[in-house]
Design a protein that fits this description.
The protein is α/β, with parallel strands linked by helices. It has one domain (3-210): Rossmann fold (3-Layer(aba) Sandwich), CATH 3.40.50. Helix content is 52%, strand content 14%. It is built from nine helices and five strands; from the N terminus they run H-E-H-E-H-H-E-H-H-E-H-H-H-E. It has helices at residues 13-34, 50-63, 79-82, 88-91, 106-116, 122-141, 155-165, 173-183, 185-199; strands at 41-47, 69-73, 100-104, 145-152, 206-210. It has a five-stranded parallel β-sheet, sandwiched between helices. The longest helix has 22 residues, at 13-34.
């Protein structure tokens, strides 16, 4: 599944710098047109490349009008969230029509992390993926446009990335999360592959993006 995202694609700085202005214009124009739409856009950013996810989020928040952009990041459920149904914290953060909601992690990643940490059984993990698929189906039936991106980095590239981040940045959430992924990479990727396979549907397709080289990603 991930072979096509391990080719080693790259984009030169010159090409990157040349394309960014037009990309910024396209994004802001699209957001402006969306303001009058009767549906929201839901973007999921996830992957082994946690640093890349946060950097991409930073780019979007710089380019887009923050008044019409809703950003949500999810970690361990709060005491209040733990007392509610599992998807309650996602429902309450959904963007309204005409707005863009960007979710870091969210429902698919939560299921993977819980299984990776052995907090759930195999059958429970499968049930969580089914719940995620039904959740997205409900959103799509209500008109939401769902865009899902998995930023993939091979094991060797992740180790190099973490080495570059340095131990002094270990406390940063994306770095800390990447260390956990690196520790049990092979088993984690088996879970990721299952999750992507079972939650990639016609109305909510996972796009696997090669994240090794920053400019290309």
């Amino acid at each position: 599944m991930f072979d096509a995202a391990e080719i080693g694609r790259s984009t030169s700085k010159e090409e990157f710098d040349a394309r960014i202005p037009d990309l910024r214009t396209e994004l802001i124009n699209t957001q402006f047109e969306l303001r009058d739409a009767n549906f929201p856009v839901i973007i999921l950013l996830a992957g082994e490349d946690r640093l890349g996810c946060h950097e991409l989020l930073g780019f979007l928040t710089q380019v887009l009008d923050s008044r019409f952009l809703h950003v949500s990041a999810f970690g361990r459920p709060s005491p209040e969230e733990s007392e509610r149904p599992a998807f309650w914290r996602y429902w309450k953060t959904l963007p309204p029509a005409g707005r863009i909601g960007v979710f870091i992690g969210a429902w698919t990643v939560s299921a993977i992390v819980e299984r990776l940490k052995k907090k759930t059984r195999k059958s429970e993990f499968t049930a969580q993926l089914h719940h995620a698929r039904e959740f997205e189906s409900t959103l799509a039936d209500e008109g939401a446009l769902i865009l899902k991106f998995w930023l993939h980095v091979p094991k060797s590239a992740l180790k190099k990335q973490l080495k570059g981040a340095g131990k002094k940045n270990w406390w940063q959430p994306p770095v800390r999360a990447s260390w956990h992924i690196n520790k049990d990479y092979d088993r984690g990727m088996d879970l990721v592959e299952q999750a992507i396979r079972e939650t990639s549907t016609e109305h909510a397709v996972w796009h696997v993006i090669e994240g090794t080289e920053r400019n290309y990603r």
